[in-house]
Amino acid sequence: MAADDVETLRLLCMGDNHGDVDSLERVVDGTEGEEFDFVIHVGDITNAWFDGVDEGREQLDAVTPYFETLHERGEFLYIWGNRDGAIGPEQPFQAYDLPGTFIPEDDTITVAGETFTQNPELVEDETILVNHYWHPELLEHFAGKAYFSGHIHTGRYKNKALNTAFLYRTADHGADALFGAYFVVEIASDGTWQVDFRNIGQVRKGICPRHQALGVQFVPDYWRQDCQFCYDEDDFYSEVVRTALYGLGTVQEEAEIDEVVESATSTFGATPPSFESRLREFLEERTEDHR
Fold it and tell me: How far apart are CA 280 and CA 261, in angstroms?
């Protein structure tokens, strides 16, 4: 806990090391002498999806000592990601004995006075949601204490939601391998967040003036821009629509374009300046596609 406020919750948050140990060593070295209430890993601990289950077990053996050290600095909690085989019925590492506590997929668990779950439907006011797949609509519509996720390899932070990007991005998809970042989050008793972004490689923090409504972004430092949505603005409007529909409690096939535009405008304002007209055009195109 923070020394000046015993009610402040201090969390070390990371994910997506994909079997790499050097990135975890950088986290261990970078947090030496620090204490946390919780240390959270949001999944993709291994790269078993690409390397095979046997290699994944060897990767778990290799990362375990680092998790043990981190568990000494705070209660260690973790989940599995898609690269750990956590899709479909098999989930090969569920019985593996990692340090700390596994957060259940369809239940809640209380550790050191805090309640955790992977299931958004089980979230209550004081619940901490940790899942691997990113739900961007929860940037605006999250009713719990905190939401942490990963998977997409471009981090994001807004309100009570943080995507931790990656500790280590492999070269499996043809791109260069990269070291990434981790985060120290302090949540005060009034719900106020402080987010300490700690770069261990090639990630940078940015706020896009055109797309600032979607929060602070953490992207690879070789990108020409600080914003993933400047590369494909349809992704921006797709996320805006997804958020608006979630807030309305409906799906696009059942929603009127005007009500989606009104909901989105009230949530995101009018950035970029062409926001409303472009959003309406985007919705009309999608409505036509669904016919």
Answer: 7
Q: Report which secondary-structure segment, H or E, holds 157.
A: strand 155-158
Tell me: pLDDT of 6 over 70: no
- Give the dihedral sign, CA 47/232/14/139: negative
Q: For residue 223, what pLDDT is reported?
A: 87
At 285, give phi and psi (nearest 5°): -65, -40
Sign of CA dihedral 21, 23, 26, 32: negative
**254 contacts 206 by C-beta, under 8 angstroms:** no
Confidence check: pLDDT of 86 > 80: no
Comparing C-alpha atoms, which of 283, 224, 218 is closest to residue 13? Answer: 218
Q: How many CA atoms lie within 13 A of 60 on its CB side?
A: 22
Domains of the chain listed by start with CATH number? 9-220 (3.60.21.10), 233-289 (no CATH)
Residue 22 CA to residue 264 CA, distance in Å, equals 42
pTM to 2 decimals? 0.93
Secondary structure (3-state) at 185: strand
- Closest of 179, 183, 158 to residue 222, by C-alpha: 179
Q: What is the per-residue pLDDT for 46?
A: 96
Highest mean pLDDT of the ranges 85-94, 100-109, 223-232, 267-276 = 100-109
Closest CA to 183 of 40, 5, 3: 40
